[in-house]
Structures are given as structure tokens and as C-alpha cells.
């Protein structure tokens, strides 16, 4: 299914650059392009260097929410806007007067347009997160020769994904940095690490598995492979690499001993995501609504202003639980270091 036991994760928002993907692949990893937060035109440009280089690679897409926000979540969103007013004033930013409509292309992350692109100009592999691609979408992509992968966080999600006809699963433990892929209630966040979660899913489904979440060293990677995965996916482990498009303040924070913990929060985007615990996480996690992508759009000007000011206490510093093991330097060295020890 994958040519390498090491996969470099698709990290949206500019972190996964073509340079990162190409360098990782050159070092022996399977690499992705990150399709999240991009229009179809932007994704086509992002893919161009990978297409030109030839060979195997993947593209990751966000599955949009179906339908409008529940009334309770909409009310919580309105209260959260009021709560953020002080941050906007402090940062010299302005909260958006209106948010993109839930049924519009931007709120749906240009889902239809990007699927059209990938069906008319196929890529070797497409993975989905935040939910399941409908079975007809999976069938259409596979008919084009594209392998299809779903991201899951529990046995129940794995069984649901397998029923859609996908070729493989990324099994993401809650130790992962950034957004959780969970889409059903009751995800197995109590599983004893990613190896334990992979073992549970391995016992339930026969599809090829990729383990993800909290994999900061080769010993953990080996345990995940021994539990039944055919590959492991690295995210935070490569965030500080030279080719990563993560902001300098994010890379610096990962190496700063002043940060001592990560936490799962909806404060930045309205979707559960693991980040270094900073002031924004402490101040707003309790009241942040379950409202993605609305909160993402709402806090966008705050995050941009904070980043421009170098304010690490007000931006999303995504990080998995093994963040302290993330190394700087060329991504090739990081990938080769894992491969040597497997």
C-alpha cells in the first residue's frame, strides 16, 4: 500500500510545503500534499512540483460538515465572539462582521471543486480527515486508479470507514498534534498510546493501517509497526525541519522549555486540536464552542495579528505529546534517522 514505513503527514495551513514533501520522499518516506484550506486553483499549484517529479504521493482533503450549526452551537458561537472582543482590541485586530455561509464553497473548504480537480487529473492517493468521504466519492476516485485512505480514531470509526470501500486507514491517537480526525462520539481516547489503538483496530478490520499520534522516536514507531501497522505517520516530528513552512515562532516554541504541556482545545478553530498550552488556550478553552469552521474564521484575524507581532501566547502552536523530541535541520536527516532504526 505504501512504499515506505515512514509517512510524512499532510499538515495544512502552509506547514507542508512542496519542498518538505519532495525532500521527505527523496529520503525514503511517503509524502503528502496538504489540500486543507486551499482552493482548487491553489491546490493545483501546490501539486505541480510533486506531479512534475513523478512517483508516488498523496493528497489530503478535509471532509466538510453536512448541514448548518446546531442552534445550541450557534448560540455558543455568538457568546464566544463577545469573549474574544478583548483579545481583538489588545491585538489591534478586527473580528469579521460576517462569517462565510455554511453551504458556501469557503466554509466547505472548496470540497466539490477539489474533488473535480482530483477526478479530472488523478493523483496516486487521496486521504480524507474530519469525516468519511461518501461511498460514491470513494468509488469514483478508485475508478481513476487513486488509492483512498480514511482517517479514524476508534474501532467504531474504522468499521464505518471500511464499509465505504477505502483501501487503508490512518489510525490517529489523541496524542497527535493539531486537529483530531474524530467524527463519531466516543473515540477511544483512553487507548494506551497509538500502538494500543492500532492493535484494537487491527483486531477489528483487515485493511492496511498507518499509526499516527505521539510518534517522536524510533522505539515508538517500532511498537506501532509491531502492533499491526504497515507504516507510521510523522507530523510534529518534522515541524521544526528546514523545509517545514511552520512559522519561526512556532518552531521556536517547540524547542522552548518554557512550554511544559500540550492540551486539547477548540479555542482556535472550534474543532478539537492539540497544541502547546499558552495564554489563549488557558483563557478560552472552557468556552470555545463546537463550531468548525466558524471559529476558525472568527479567530483568523486574531491569529494573523498575533503572528505578525511575534506573540506566541495568542497563536495556535500545534504540537503532539512527543513535541520535545522534534528536531531541527533537514527533513531528510529526520526521516533517515527513523528509517535506520526500524
TrEMBL record:
The GO molecular function terms of this record are: nitronate monooxygenase activity; oxidoreductase activity, acting on the CH-CH group of donors
Q: Which GO terms describe its biological process?
A: 'de novo' pyrimidine nucleobase biosynthetic process; response to toxic substance
Which reaction does this enzyme catalyse, per its entry?
Answer: 3 propionate 3-nitronate + 3 O2 + H2O = 3 3-oxopropanoate + 2 nitrate + nitrite + H2O2 + 3 H(+)
Q: Which InterPro entries match?
A: Aldolase_TIM, Dihydroorotate_DH_CS, NMO
Q: Which cofactor does it need?
A: FMN
Q: Which Pfam families match?
A: NMO
Q: Where are the transmembrane segments?
A: none
What SUPFAM superfamilies does the annotation carry? Answer: Inosine monophosphate dehydrogenase (IMPDH)
Keywords in alphabetical order: Detoxification, Flavoprotein, FMN, Monooxygenase, Oxidoreductase
Q: What is the lineage of its organism?
A: Bacteria, Bacillati, Actinomycetota, Actinomycetes, Micrococcales
Which segment of the chain is annotated as a signal peptide?
none
Protein family per UniProt: Belongs to the nitronate monooxygenase family. NMO class I subfamily.
Write down what this protein is called: Propionate 3-nitronate monooxygenase
Keyword Oxidoreductase tagged: yes
